[in-house]
Amino acid sequence: MADPRLFRLRVSFVKQGRLTLLSHLELARTLERIVRRAGVPFAVTNGFSPHMRIAFGSALPVGVGGREELFDLFLTNYIAPAKILPLLQGASPLDLMPFACEYVEPQAPAVSVAFPLSTYEAVLEGGLTSLVIPEVVQVKRGKKEKVLMVAEYLRGDVEARSAEDVEETSGTATPQTILRFCLEAKPSGTLRPDKFVEAIMASTISAGGASSELRSMALTRLNQRAL
Amino acid sequence: MNSQSHWTQLAPLLRDVERPSRYINHEWGASLKPGADFSFCMVYPDTYEIGQANQAVRILTNAVNAVPGLRAERAFLPAVDMIDQLRERKLPFCSLESCTPLREFDVLGITMPHELAATNILEVLDLAGLALHAKDRSEEDPIVVGGGPCAYNPEPYWPFFDLFSIGEGEELTPELVLRIKELRGEGASRRQILRELSHIPGVYVPSLYKPVDEMTAQVSGSWLEPLEEDVPRRIKKRVFNGFSASSAWEPCVVPYTEVVHDRLNVEILRGCARGCRFCQAGMMYRPIRERSADNIVEGVLEGLRATGYDEVSLTSLSSTDHSQIAEILTRLNSALEGTGIRVSIPSQRLDSFGVEMAELVAGQKKGGLTFAPEAGTQRLRDIINKNVTEENLFSAIDAAFSAGWRRCKLYFMVGLPEETDEDLKGIASLTQRAFDRARSVVPPEQRNKVQMSISCAVFVPKAQTPFQWDGQISPAEVQRKIDLVRRSIKYRGITVNWHDPKTSFVEAVMSRGGREVAPWVERAWRKGARFDAWTEYFNEEAWRNAAEELGLDIEDIAQRSFEPGYVMPWNHISTGVSTRYLVMERYRAEMGQTTPDCTFTACTACGACKSLDSQNDLAQGRVLPKGDTSLFVDDEEADS
Questions:
Q1: Which chain B residue has the Cα nearest residue A43?
Q2: Does residue B630 form part of some domain?
Q3: Which among B25, B307, B338 has CB closest to A44?
Q4: Does some domain include residue B618?
Q5: Is the pLDDT of residue B631 over 50?
Q6: pLDDT tier at B630 (50, 70, 90 boundaries)?
C-alpha cells in the first residue's frame, strides 16, 4: 500500500447543508470528481481497471453533517498545500468545501480507522426536564435486529444544554436542546449516532423528561480524534 | 409563498424517503439564472436517476437559458414514496433549481421518451396541480408543451398537452418560449396564444383540429382537419441544421446520486440512415449530421475537465459509423492515457466492429459487449433491412474475444413481420455458433469464462416506419415464440432474457393508436397505473379494466395489419421521410430486398433532405470497413 514515490495529502472538508443527505457512496464519488476537476496530479492504481488512489474517512450516516471530514489523496508530484487547497476549493460545491490540507506519512494508518473517537452534536427541537440515556440501543439491519450496549461505545457523558431558536422575521422563539456526546468506533462495529439520538429521545420521552413533540433537527460530527 | 419556504416544507420529508439526493439540487453544473423573469421548466416524467442524463433535458435547458430574459429549470417526477408524501401533506411538485411549484412556471416542457411513460405524464400534471386536459386550464396556468420520440404520434396524448413540438428542439424550444413571452406580454388569451404558435414550423396544436371519419381520412390523407384556415394541415418536424458546427461540449449537471448513463455523454453524430425497417429513430433523425473529430476531441477534454467524470461515452444511434471514429478514438486514447478515464461507445454495429475498433475501445476495462443482429436468419435480416451478415457477426466476435472480452449480449426481436418458426430456431443456431466461435479464439484455460446471453424484445410497430402498418402478434403468440427460442438453445452457457409481452402490448397500443386511446390512458391512470416501465409497478389489470369499461378494442389497435399506404392516425405529422418511401420499403421487405445506407452509397430517395431543406452533413466521406459488401446494391435491386 505505502508507495514511497507518492505524496499522501490529507484533506479536511465540511459536509453540511443539503449535502448532509449524501450517502457515503455518493460522497465518495463526488470527492473523486472534485479531485479530477481540480486538475491535481493524483496517482492511479496499477492493474486491469486503474482508478484514483484516494481513501475516505469513516462514514457518516445519511443526514448527518460533519465539521471536519477527511480524505487522503495520493499524488505523484509534490505541490505545496497552500497551492493545492485553492484548486480543490474551486472544484467543490459550497456544502463540501475543503478548508485545510497537509501531507502525512505514507505509512500512517488509514484515514478511515485512524480516528475512532467522534464527537457529535445534536440539535433537538423542544425542551427537556430530564435526560434519560438508554443502556442498550436496538438497531435493525434488514431483517436482523441487533442489540448494542451503549457503554461499549459511549465515551464520557452525554452533555445537554438548552438553547433557543429565534425566528428572524417573527421573533418567535422555539426552545431547543443541544446534546453533545462522543462515540468510539470499534473494529467489531459502531453505534450509529443518529440511532443513538433516536434512542435517547425515545427513552427520555417515555420517562416523561420531554414531550412527545421532541424532534431531532440536525446532527453533526464536530471532530474525529485518535485514541 | 416564496421558494425558500417551499424548500423548508420539503426538506423535513427528505430524511424519511429513499435516496434523498434525488431532490436536493445544488449539483455541480446546476445553476439558477438570475434576473430572468420568464420561466420554462423541463420535466422528465420519471425519477431523477432515470431522467437526469437525458439528452433533451440537457440540450433544452441550455438552449432556453441562453436566451436573455428566459430562465430554464429542471424537474423530475419524484419516486412513489415521495409522491405519496407530497399528496398526503398537500405540498406542491417543485422544480429543482429554485424550488418553485411547477404550476407557477410560464411554460412546462414535458419530454415523451417512450410509450410506457404515458401515465407518468398524467402523474406529473396532477401532482403539479394542473388540470389533466389542456382545455380546462386557466389563463394563469403554464402552457404545457410535449416533445420527444412519442410526439411523432401524439394522438394518444392529445387532450393533455396544449401543444406538441415536433422534431429537434435546439431552435424551436427557445423560439416557442420567447413567442409565448411576447404574446403574454401583449395580454393575449390562452386560445389566441395557441393559435399564434400554430404558425411556427414544427408546432402542432391538437385543439385546433377536428377528427374526420375513416373514408374522409383515407381520401384526404389525414384523420384530422384544421378548424381554421391558417392552421397547417401537415406539421413537419424541425431539424437543427447547426448541429455539426455546434460545440460537442454541452455544459451538463453532474449528479450526486448514481444515475443511468452516469458519465460524460458527448453526442458525436445525429441520425442513422442504415434504414432498419422497424426502427423509428432511424427515420426520425434524418438527415445525418456529424460533428468533426477536432470538435469532438476538444469537447470531450473540456467536458472531462469541467465535470470530473471518469468515463466518457461517445453517443449517437450508431457511433462506429462516424466517418472519423478511428481518429477520434486514437486521439482520445492517447490524450487520456494514465488518467484512468474510460472511453465508451454505446452501441457497436456488427459490420463496423473490426479488429481495429476492438483495440481502440478496448481501453482498460472490458465489460460486456452488445451486438444486435435483431433476427436469426439472413432471410429475415434482409426483410428488416438490418444489412448485417452472419460473417459480420462472427468476425466481430473473433475481434472482441481475441481482444479480451469474455461476455457478449446479442439482441433479437421476436414477432417481426414475415417471421417464421425457422427464423426463431435461427436465433438459437446463430447464437450457438457465435458461442463456439468465441470459445475457439479464447485461450483453452479461459474457455469456461465465455458467457453469452440473448435478449429478445417483442416487435412493437412504430409510427413513421415502414412497419407501421404491421400489427403486433398477440402476447400468447409471443410467449410461444420465446419458448421456442428457449427450447432451441442447447448450450448451458447461453442465457435467454425476454421482455414482458404484456408491457410490449401496451406499447403497441400507444404507438399505433389515435385519439380514441387518450381516454384509455386517463382511465388506466385513474385506476392506479403509473411507472409502467418499472416491472414492479406495471399494473396490467388497470390497463385491461380501463379498456373494458370504455369498450375500447385494444387488441385491434395493437394487432391489426393494414395495407401499406393506409392513412394512419399520425399522417399529419411528418418526419420528412415520405409515406411513399415507407410504402416502397414495406414492399421491398416483402420481397426480401435490402436498401443501402445513403451515407455510404448514394441517395435512396427517402425524401427527408428535400422535404426538410437540409442534407447529410458528414465530417468526411464514409468508407465501408474492408471486406464488407453488405451495403452494395446488387443489380437485381438496382433494377427494381
A1: B339
A2: no
A3: B338
A4: no
A5: no
A6: very low
